[in-house]
Amino acid sequence: MNPSTAELLAAVDATGSDDVVLLPNNKNIIPVAEQVAGVAERRVHVVPTSSIVEGFAALLAYDPAAPGAANREAMVASSTHVVAAEVTQAVRDATTPAGEVREGDWIGLTRAGVQSIAESMAVAACALLDSVVTDGHELVTVIEGEGSTPANTRRITQWLAEERPGVAVEVHHGGQPLYPYLFGVE
User: Fold this and answer.
1) Domain ends where: 79, 99, 121?
2) Residues of the domain holding 129
């Protein structure tokens, strides 16, 4: 989940490519990826993605025939058009601008911090989506992780159909730990 500079450098070297595009998909890994770009023998182009859904959006702009620098530019532009959101379970009590969080609560997060707090995973997810999905959005990508359930996914997609009928919804199984739901809003 948090690779070291040496691990990323080994992965870059293992590609065998002269031009490598690196997607950190975690705000804490962006400086590590940039460090790799500075010491690698290959050209490394870092797309500063801070979440998996930003990484997916960036990949949609990847052109295998384009040079690395051009891919980086297109991928950065694509990744910045997605609003990343996620649902996880609180591991400790905390005070947030959204309210008091108790260990075990379900919380909805964005780059701005905690957006929703609930005792139910689906309620936290729907409240999170209510705060980030606007009439100007066209697509919500739902990525199911460990702990997601068909019933909760159905509640989330039904909420979207009822409350944001103009938005298309795609559901994919990602299997990621700790975050039963990741959302990409475009």
Assistant:
1) 79
2) 83-185
